[in-house]
Design a protein that fits this description.
Radius of gyration: 20 Å
Order of helices and strands: HEEHHHHHHHEHHEHHHH
Shape: globular
Number of strands: 4
Helix content: 40-55%
Strand order of the largest sheet: 1-2
């Protein structure tokens, strides 16, 4: 059923009941999607995520990132979760994900619990959307109602993963373009980048900023020199590629607005972070300053932008499938 097929009277009632109902080309997403088919779905996801984050605090950022890296490829369809098999080349092998994307075992754990409670009902794509929200809340961030009803893809795109996901060394113009192609504007870009208030990054993702940012053998001029010196101790010119550094060194385990304060003081870890403040865009600079001053404004926009990102070309209706195992298609 399409949104346009619904009677106007229903849509008026529907939209008043569910303020974040999202219409897509082939159906709609809404928070109560599993209310009758699997009423305990959200509680099950929340419980498994909470246990996983209690075991390892870093997992909250990892799960949040999976949703982002899934949605930016073929839409929010859990294509990222597929392992390589037959004609499928896994997105896990792409440059943004290889040796980096993680948390797949937690998704497996959530899926197993859901299959036990409500077989073949809750999609892997919806698991990623819910786990991202729960991870945010668990680390002190905002909550939001997650529109649900996505279905799972029957294919993956390693090419899309390589090309569509913003990279740490992309220019601001390139990053803005990649967001625009997914229907997201600079406000969404700055707010969603604020997810880097938690989580870690590898030395290999920012090394060039420390030693040779523009090919002249000098460090990035937009990087605070004292901070750069600290980073060089564990991120040498060669070696140590996988050494981890907190994206927000001051409150690494807490979802807050410290990330934006760091950018203002030129202590953003990745070039793609700092460029939001120092990259020459008055729009993104103004937003960084605003969110640095108002955590409330950041939280409100982050929640809105997460709902918007979660609605990037979902499969609904009879498109795709509900995978029994998130790592492989059903047949």
């Amino acid at each position: 059923m399409k949104c346009m097929d619904l009677p106007v009277s229903f849509l008026i009632i529907f939209s008043s009941l569910v303020s974040v109902a999202q219409c897509s080309g082939s159906g709609y997403l809404y928070p109560q999607f599993y209310q009758h088919s699997c009423p305990s779905a959200q509680a099950i996801v929340r419980s498994v995520v909470a246990k996983a984050v209690a075991r390892e605090a870093r997992m909250s950022a990892s799960l949040l990132r999976l949703h982002f890296h899934d949605c930016f490829v073929k839409g929010c369809d859990a294509s990222l979760l597929l392992d390589s098999s037959g004609t499928i080349t896994s997105e896990k092998r792409s440059n943004p994900n290889r040796n980096s994307a993680r948390g797949f075992e937690v998704v497996d754990e959530i899926k197993a619990a859901l299959e036990k409670e409500c077989p073949r009902t809750v999609s892997c794509a919806d698991i990623l959307a819910l786990a991202a929200r729960d991870s945010t809340v668990l680390t002190g961030g905002p909550s939001w109602e997650v529109p649900l009803g996505r279905r799972d893809s029957i294919g993956a795109s390693i090419q899309g993963s390589n090309n569509n996901i913003p990279a740490p060394n992309n220019t601001l113009r390139t990053i803005i373009t990649k967001f625009n192609l997914k229907g997201l504007d600079p406000v969404d870009l700055v707010a969603l980048s604020g997810s880097h208030t938690i989580g870690d990054s590898r030395c290999t993702s920012f090394r060039q900023r420390l030693y040779n940012q523009t090919g002249d053998g000098r460090p990035d001029s937009t990087l605070d020199t004292t901070y750069a010196a600290q980073l060089r101790r564990r991120c040498p010119r060669s070696g140590g590629d996988q050494n981890l550094f907190p994206l927000d060194a001051l409150s690494p385990g807490r979802f807050d607005n410290q990330y934006f304060k760091n950018l203002v003081s030129r202590k953003g870890l990745l070039a793609s972070d700092e460029v939001l403040f120092s990259g020459g865009s008055a729009t993104t600079m103004r937003l960084v300053k605003w969110y640095a001053e108002s955590e409330e404004a950041f939280f409100a926009q982050f929640a809105k932008s997460m709902v918007k990102m979660g609605n990037i070309t979902p499969l609904t209706g009879n498109k795709g499938e509900i995978r029994k195992n998130c790592r492989r298609i059903n047949h």
